[in-house]
């Protein structure tokens, strides 16, 4: 075997080894991502278990005093919000803040002389966002200026 052929065989062998190592690294990375995803899913599911437990208790006591049921449902809602907060997601959308199409979805425009046009006057459904971005936008009612009275129409 000539020296040139030996060098060629050596390069081919190195290339095959490098390709196999790259493939193994890719498989390790995929496995690691799958394991971390499963761990995060378990963590999130575990955070919601107390909320589910309290909903089960509320259903078990459905024949109780309606005021107590309403109070219990409000407590479960507060607990659910606390879970979202612990997971890093805060409510988005508050009355009085300027409408932002990146964070809000306008459900309606209402006349509101007491606030500047383009302000949120009512939150129909809160949105939630965190460090990675928006889970969902807030659905809001937005202030528009009052309609001008038209003197010709007797307004």
List the helices and strands and how they pair.
Elements (H helix, E strand, L loop, with lengths): L2 H58 L5 H21 L3 E3 L11 E8 L8 E6 L1 E4 L2 E4 L1 E7 L11
Parallel strand pairs: 2-6
Antiparallel strand pairs: 1-4, 3-6, 4-5
Overview in brief:
It contains 2 helices and 6 strands. The protein has helices spanning 3-60, 66-86, and strands at residues 90-92, 104-111, 120-125, 127-130, 133-136, 138-144.
Task: Describe the protein in words.
With 155 residues, the protein is of the alpha+beta class. 51% of the residues lie in helices and 21% in strands. The chain contains 2 helices and 6 strands. The strands form 2 sheets. A 3-stranded antiparallel sheet has the order 1-4-5. It has a 3-stranded mixed sheet with strand order 2-6-3, with no helix packed on it. Strand 4 and strand 5 form a beta hairpin. Helix 1 packs antiparallel against helix 2. The protein is flat and about 95 Å long. The model has no long low-confidence stretch (mean pLDDT 88).
Helical residues, percent: 40-55%
Summed up, the helix count is 2
Task: Tell me which oligomeric state these chains represent.
Answer: single chain
Q: Which strand order spans the largest sheet, edge to edge or round the barrel?
A: 1-4-5
Strand content: 15-25%
Which series of helices and strands comes N to C? HHEEEEEE
